[in-house]
Amino acid sequence: MADEADALLRALHQAYARPLQHYVVRLTGDHALAQDVVQEAMVRAWTHPEVLTRDEGATRAWLYTVVRNLVIDDRRSARHVRERSTEHAPDTAQPDASQAVLDSWLVADALEQLTPEHRAVVVGAYYGGRSVAELAREHQVPEGTVKSRMHYALRALRLALQERGVTS
């Protein structure tokens, strides 16, 4: 009996799987959903063996009704309303930049605690890429003064960052 039911189910799948899939694709435009719906319809046919013994027209009508109802149920589901699928995944993963933004805010806030002279040499050297000699000419001070300001500015910056919870 089981072998006969299996043979009938294979014949049912052979005869109707492709036309049912085309029907669902015409209804939804979604090939993946069409495969899932046809598979579910075949499972339902398997769990209702009386369908396998009906005449061909009644079996066909039952399968198309099941498929249509499955599509309607899918379209009414919360998953369909909230989820969107795409055929193509993004090419590359984008790194999360939120930590870098937070770090830059933290450093900018700590830089505000420095004196204008100290801030100018730190920003000029680290963000501007200028040498001690260039900073000395720009601020019209001796190179030793620039070095001294840099030393005390970095010390003050380290303390300001420690106060904000950044550990060394």
From TrEMBL:
Task: Return the Pfam families for the record.
Answer: Sigma70_r2, Sigma70_r4
Keyword annotations for this protein? DNA-binding, Sigma factor, Transcription, Transcription regulation
Tagged with keyword DNA-binding: yes
Q: Where is the RNA polymerase sigma-70 region domain?
A: 12-79, 110-158
* NCBIfam families cross-referenced by the UniProt entry: PRK09645.1 (NF007227), sigma70-ECF (TIGR02937)
Task: Say which family it is in.
Answer: Belongs to the sigma-70 factor family. ECF subfamily.
Kindly provide the name given to this protein in its UniProt entry. Answer: RNA polymerase sigma factor
